[in-house]
Write a structure and sequence with these properties.
single chain, Butyryl-CoA Dehydrogenase, subunit A, domain 3, Nuclear Transport Factor 2, Chain: A, RNA_pol_sigma-70_dom, RNA_pol_sigma70_r4_t2, transcription, sigma factor activity, DNA binding, 2 domains, seven-stranded mixed beta sheet, about 15% strand, alpha+beta, 7 strands, about 45% helix, about 325 residues
């Protein structure tokens, strides 16, 4: 153990002693370094930002109340993850994955290619991502979080704990109140059924990402359907949670965009840039009112996915105004 790790452990033990004596400031110093990563963990499991925030608040309250029972055999981080994971699994069980009320298109939309399997999915603001060297793009990408939502809850938890956060099997088993053998089997099933597509986005914030995003946004806002389609991959998708319909492939996407543009009868969008799940995004406005938060999934020099979240309550999370124009 290094001298620095010894010092860190000594400080943590001193804070824990004070916290157990009822010092709320000491408790805050003890848990605050883990707040952002706990929120991201809960978001991966639940797929919704408000639900993740609620789970974190419940976790910290349970930790404060459970201080007398904390024996120190696990790290504070591991202890908090155990509480948070339990809270998330309970929330999933209680909610029963009831989809939110789907908005009705104000125009006669073309028949969708398929229906969304996770209409409750929401984006995650980059501003809330933890500043950690281990955080990889593919572990926060919207498509990855959507794929996690399609696994059984305990499979999701095992995969996130082991493959994303790097907990050893034995420690993950303790967090999940089961055996290492059981976690290994659950993890194998999760890995075999997880459906994700490997995307190769340009460097976040780099010139290539900015150029592609600006060209797409300009075409989208101007209803230049041909220019939008030219920037898409052949197997691109357009999804609009919580609406269940999804359009796969350039022909289906073009049909929907043309129908939408015809309905607006020449009224054009305005937009404000944002970032979500490590990906470029923008808030849409029609006649100054929110018209969807759009998150782009990039693959090399093309756009592989367009996810338009039809939920104006998301705007404040991304620093976007309620009205703009």
């Amino acid at each position: 153990m290094t001298e620095r790790s010894c010092d860190d452990r000594t400080v943590a033990e001193a804070l824990m002693t004070r916290a157990r004596a009822g010092d709320q400031d000491a408790f805050a110093q003890l848990v605050d370094p883990f707040r952002r990563e706990l929120q991201l963990h809960c978001y991966r499991l639940l797929g919704r930002l408000p639900d993740a925030e609620d789970a974190v608040q419940e976790t910290l309250l349970a930790a404060w109340r459970g201080l007398p029972e904390f024996e120190g055999r696990a790290s504070v981080r591991g202890w908090l993850y155990r509480i948070a994971t339990r809270r998330c699994l309970n929330a999933i069980r209680d909610a029963g994955r009831r989809p939110p009320l789907a908005p009705v298109p104000p125009f006669d939309a073309p028949e969708p290619t398929r229906h969304q399997e996770v209409p409750w999915l929401q984006p995650y603001p980059d501003a809330l991502l933890p500043e950690a060297a281990y955080l990889r793009h593919e572990q926060v990408e919207l498509a990855f979080v959507a794929a996690l939502q399609q696994l059984p809850p305990r499979q999701t938890a095992a995969l996130v704990l082991c493959d994303v956060l790097g907990f050893p099997l034995a420690e993950a088993a303790e967090l999940l109140d089961t055996s290492a053998t059981a976690v290994k089997g659950t993890l194998q099933r999760a890995r075999s059924t997880l459906r994700t597509t490997a995307h190769r986005p340009p460097a976040a914030g780099g010139a290539a990402e900015r150029d592609l995003t600006e060209r797409f946004t300009r075409a989208f806002v101007a209803d230049d359907v041909a220019a939008v389609i030219a920037l898409l991959t052949d197997d691109a998708w357009l999804a609009m949670p919580p609406a269940p319909h999804q359009y796969d492939g350039t022909a289906a996407i073009a049909g929907f965009l043309r129908a939408s543009a015809d309905w607006r009868a020449g009224r054009r969008y305005t937009q404000r840039p944002a970032r979500a799940n490590g990906q470029p995004a923008f808030g849409l406005y029609l006649d100054g009112a929110p018209a969807g938060l759009v998150v782009l999934t990039l693959d090399a020099d093309r756009v592989a996915g367009v996810t338009r979240f039809m939920d104006d309550t998301l705007y404040p999370w991304f620093g976007l105004p309620r009205a703009f124009g």
